[in-house]
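Is this the right way to post structure tokens for a design question? Let me know if I should format differently. Anyway, here goes:
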């Protein structure tokens, strides 16, 4: 019991370490009204009169601005990331899919339950991990990109940045996505270092999409809400266990003093 309590208290202390705002999320509103801590993200989601092209679905409640969505569609690079890192540039349909994914990254107000703290990055202090992506979304993305070219399977970690922009790693060579990733699930999960976790469309916990009609409600909201409620329930159980450990320590202290 004592060893369990020691480990539990240590975990809580590490989780509430200095600078980790995520450790303070304690209500449903905390999880549902937060934006990722990135250099161009809002602090909290707010409505936008309009957003540009593939970012349009997020206008009612968005972590990005119209200006950002215009820039990510127009600029040849984003955060100095070079989409055309192989001699064969990305096809328009494949680049369009990555722009849609980028809209999610910049604009989604529903990633709170999947945020984790990261260190040593200039563009963000947090990232999302294992957000559940519907298999159908992943398959459509894959079909539009499988014949395009890349030189690495992990775009978050493997590029050479010594020039200030993303360059293919030394010794690598360009292959089709089909050759590099083999299948849709491996592609969606690995390309951004497990930001996404592909799940069946019928998964009882639901899954995320990257596009919906403007007059429809954001279908990702309920998925995020259900996940947040589960995290809060787990946190409540942890609080009870920590309290029990506190009473154990008090009881031991009383015995020692006597």
């Amino acid at each position: 019991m004592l060893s369990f309590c020691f480990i539990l208290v240590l975990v809580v202390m590490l989780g509430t370490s200095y600078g980790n705002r995520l450790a303070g999320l304690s209500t449903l509103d905390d999880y549902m009204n937060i934006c990722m801590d990135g250099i161009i993200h809002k602090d909290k989601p707010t409505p936008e009169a309009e957003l540009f092209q593939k970012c349009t679905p997020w206008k009612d409640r968005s972590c990005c601005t119209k200006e950002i969505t215009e820039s990510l569609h127009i600029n040849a690079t984003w955060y100095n990331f070079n989409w055309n890192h192989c001699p064969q540039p990305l096809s328009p349909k494949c680049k369009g899919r990555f722009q849609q994914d980028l809209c999610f990254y910049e604009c989604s107000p529903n990633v709170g339950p999947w945020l984790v703290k990261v260190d040593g990055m200039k563009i963000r202090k947090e990232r999302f991990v294992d957000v559940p992506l519907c298999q159908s979304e992943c398959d459509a993305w894959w079909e539009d990109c499988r014949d395009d070219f890349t030189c690495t399977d992990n775009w978050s970690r493997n590029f050479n940045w010594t020039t200030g922009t993303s360059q293919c790693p030394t010794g690598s060579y360009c292959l089709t996505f089909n050759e590099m990733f083999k299948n849709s699930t491996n592609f969606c999960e690995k390309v951004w270092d497990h930001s996404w976790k592909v799940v069946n469309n019928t998964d009882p916990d639901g899954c995320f999409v990257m596009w919906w009609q403007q007059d429809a409600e954001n279908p990702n909201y309920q998925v995020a809400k259900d996940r947040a409620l589960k995290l809060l329930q787990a946190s409540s159980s942890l609080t009870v266990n920590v309290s029990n450990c506190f009473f154990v320590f008090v009881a031991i202290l009383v015995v020692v003093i006597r």
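Format looks fine. Someone answered above. Worth noting: Helices lie at 2-15, 28-32, 66-74, 92-107, 135-145, 177-181, 184-190, 220-257. Residues 27-257 form one domain.
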